[in-house]
């Protein structure tokens, strides 16, 4: 018989007293089952725990207070990250209760921007194994290796090869911090069961020589595999996980541009998968843009969108905007794409260098003369929207911001590069240089800004708003494939949740404190698309929102029964 948190929620409704076979130290050492000082006296006797924990029985609320007191004593965000991960490793119920109660404060710690620093130091702060590592040297054993994972059911897998971690580049096996953090947000944000999540690192080497020379680096000390060998590793991994968990959602995360697009195109129609950097970023940015346009009172078709940076995030956002312009404003594909302008490391993306462009840039090449300077391009294009995905801090200088404002009453400026140190500009700069006229959202969080006695609350285009709900919808409604229409529905749903008071304060995205309600509604929107497009064989429940909420994991202690 399975242990309690390893059983599906629908079973728990019928049987709230949960059978557990582990006892004593073994039970205290299982983070999925451990209650620590929260075990009542009856369970301390039944499971041989009496004397192994302090005698005082402590409520989970008091445990949360103790965690946060110690959290606030830490001297740095990296130490706070380590503190929370130590809790994650010993008591998952308490860990998720803490995150849920303090989500606004703790999201920047368990994910961007602090997770970037944690990945940089991953080999040095490593405490305990979490997730699975599939290294190139173990390729023949992948199918056998998946059976080493102790959980019989997996709903969501987040996988990275560590090649493009946030704005920090190639961190190799250190990138495991990203899947761990993303899956924590799946649990706290949408109620996916923690025992049904699996973080994965594909170790295909690293071109970061400093890491390979670091004696505490935990990955393969080889250069990154060439394309053929790389794709063979990914294919073997997908085949292996499909052999054991054929219905599991695979989220591709932080792959370099030259691999992110081919992987998505190869697998999107074969298995249940998506790429969060492409599709999730596109959806949350579109949601912020739709909110901004409510303030402007203008349609999407009237915008000119300039991307500073032309990687996977830019392409994902651009494609999502194009799909929305076609669906909402009736534009043709060519007309919708003509709204988008891109700049890469060589300047404006133009047809003049079409033969030298990466495939993902070609659809957005304009028949224009070359231009390399951002300020010159703004003067020529006169964009209403400026989106930064360049990882170049301070690229949106005061002259750039003022030039944007010269062409439009409410310039929409989204410096999305992560972590905070890579942002193209700060919220304070954007608000002050436009005297509060800017409509702003960033990739990393910024504090409120006061201009002319008015307080502005910067929005954050955090993928947390999107991917947990999309994933929850996929697993709840047994969706076979994830489509672009599902991400478009997610973006619209998110934008619809932004109230007039939030817009008046400059907040273009909802309060993160409502993430569970937001995720539930996004899951429903995804489910609606699946039912309409015939992408699930499941019978449609009468009330989709109730159906989703009833299946969400909530972190609380439940009574155990010894078996």
The CATH H-level superfamily of the largest domain is: Malic enzyme, N-terminal domain
The oligomeric state is single chain
| CATH architecture label of the largest domain | 3-Layer(aba) Sandwich
Strand runs, count: 16
Number of helices: 26
Biggest β-sheet description:
7 strands, mixed
Q: In what range is the share of β-strand residues?
A: 5-15%
Any idea what the shape is? Answer: globular
Rg, Cα atoms, Å: 24 Å
- Average pLDDT works out at 94
CATH topology of the largest domain: Rossmann fold
* Number of domain units: 3
Uncertain runs: 1-13
Top CATH class of the largest domain: Alpha Beta
Helix/strand/pairing category: alpha/beta
How many angstroms separate the termini? 9 Å
Short summary:
The protein has 563 residues and is α/β, with parallel strands linked by helices. Helices cover 45% and strands 11% of the residues.
Essential attributes:
563 residues, alpha/beta, Hemocyanin, N-terminal domain, Rossmann fold, 3 domains
List the helices and strands and how they pair.
Elements: H1 9-14, E1 18-20, H2 24-28, H3 41-46, H4 60-73, H5 77-90, H6 92-101, H7 103-110, H8 114-120, H9 122-125, E2 132-135, H10 142-145, E3 156-160, H11 177-190, E4 197-203, H12 209-213, H13 227-244, E5 249-252, H14 257-267, E6 273-275, H15 276-296, E7 305-308, H16 312-329, H17 333-337, E8 340-344, E9 347-348, H18 359-362, H19 374-381, E10 385-388, H20 398-407, E11 412-415, H21 427-433, E12 439-442, E13 449-451, E14 454-456, E15 459-460, H22 467-476, H23 484-496, H24 500-504, H25 515-533, H26 544-550, E16 560-562
Parallel strand pairs: 1-16, 2-4, 3-4, 3-5, 5-6, 7-8, 7-10, 10-11, 11-12, 12-15
Antiparallel strand pairs: 8-9, 13-14
Helix pairs in contact: 4-5, 4-6, 5-6, 5-8, 6-11, 11-22, 15-16, 15-23, 19-20, 22-25, 23-25, 25-26
């Amino acid at each position: 018989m399975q242990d309690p948190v390893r059983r599906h929620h629908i079973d728990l409704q019928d049987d709230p007293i949960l059978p557990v076979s582990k006892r004593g130290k073994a039970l205290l050492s299982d983070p999925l089952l451990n209650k620590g000082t929260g075990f009542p006296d009856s369970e301390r006797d039944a499971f041989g725990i009496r004397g192994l924990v302090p005698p005082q029985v402590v409520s989970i609320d008091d445990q949360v207070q103790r965690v946060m007191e110690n959290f606030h004593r830490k001297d740095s965000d990296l130490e706070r990250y380590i503190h929370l991960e130590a809790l994650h490793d010993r008591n998952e119920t308490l860990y998720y209760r803490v995150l849920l109660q303090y989500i606004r404060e703790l999201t920047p710690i368990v994910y961007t921007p602090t997770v970037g620093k944690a990945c940089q130091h991953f080999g040095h702060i490593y405490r305990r194994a979490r997730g699975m590592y599939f290294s190139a040297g173990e390729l023949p054993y992948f199918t056998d290796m998946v059976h080493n994972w102790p959980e019989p059911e997996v709903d969501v897998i987040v996988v990275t090869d560590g090649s493009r971690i946030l704005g920090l580049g190639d961190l190799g096996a250190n990138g495991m911090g990203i899947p761990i953090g993303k899956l924590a947000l799946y649990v706290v944000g949408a109620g996916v069961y923690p025992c049904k999540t699996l973080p994965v690192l594909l170790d295909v080497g690293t071109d970061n020589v400093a890491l390979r020379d670091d004696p505490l680096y935990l990955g393969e000390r080889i250069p990154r595999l060439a394309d053929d060998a790389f794709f063979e590793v990914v294919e073997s991994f997908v085949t292996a996980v499909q052999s054991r968990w054929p219905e599991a959602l695979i989220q591709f995360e932080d792959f370099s541009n030259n691999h992110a697009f081919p992987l998505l195109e190869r697998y999107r129609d074969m298995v249940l998968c998506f790429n969060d950097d492409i599709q999730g970023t596109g959806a949350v940015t579109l949601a912020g843009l739709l909110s901004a346009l409510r303030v402007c009172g203008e349609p999407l078709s009237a915008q000119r969108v300039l991307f500073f940076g032309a990687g996977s995030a830019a392409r994902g956002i651009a494609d999502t905007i194009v799909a929305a312009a076609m669906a909402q404003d009736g534009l043709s594909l060519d007309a919708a794409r003509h709204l988008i302008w891109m700049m890469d490391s060589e300047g404006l993306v133009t047809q003049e260098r079409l033969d030298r462009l990466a495939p993902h840039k070609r659809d957005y090449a304009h028949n224009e003369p070359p231009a390399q300077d951002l300020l010159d391009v703004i003067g020529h294009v006169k964009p209403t929207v400026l989106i930064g995905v360049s990882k170049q801090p301070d690229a949106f200088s005061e002259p750039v911001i003022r030039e944007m404002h010269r062409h439009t009453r409410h310039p929409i400026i989204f410096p999305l590069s992560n972590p905070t140190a890579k942002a193209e500009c700060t919220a304070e700069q954007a608000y002050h240089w436009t005297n509060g006229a800017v409509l702003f959202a960033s990739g990393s969080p910024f504090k409120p800004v006061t201009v002319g006695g008015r307080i502005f609350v910067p929005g954050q285009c955090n993928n947390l708003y999107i991917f947990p709900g999309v994933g929850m919808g996929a697993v709840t409604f047994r969706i076979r494939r994830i489509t672009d229409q599902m991400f478009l529905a997610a973006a619209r749903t998110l934008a619809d949740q932004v109230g007039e008071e939030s817009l008046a304060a400059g907040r273009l995205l909802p309060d993160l404190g409502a993430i569970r309600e937001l995720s539930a509604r996004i899951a429903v929107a995804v489910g609606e698309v699946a039912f309409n497009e015939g992408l699930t064989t499941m019978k449609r429940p009468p009330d989709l929102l109730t159906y989703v909420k009833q299946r969400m994991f909530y972190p609380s202690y439940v009574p155990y029964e010894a078996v």
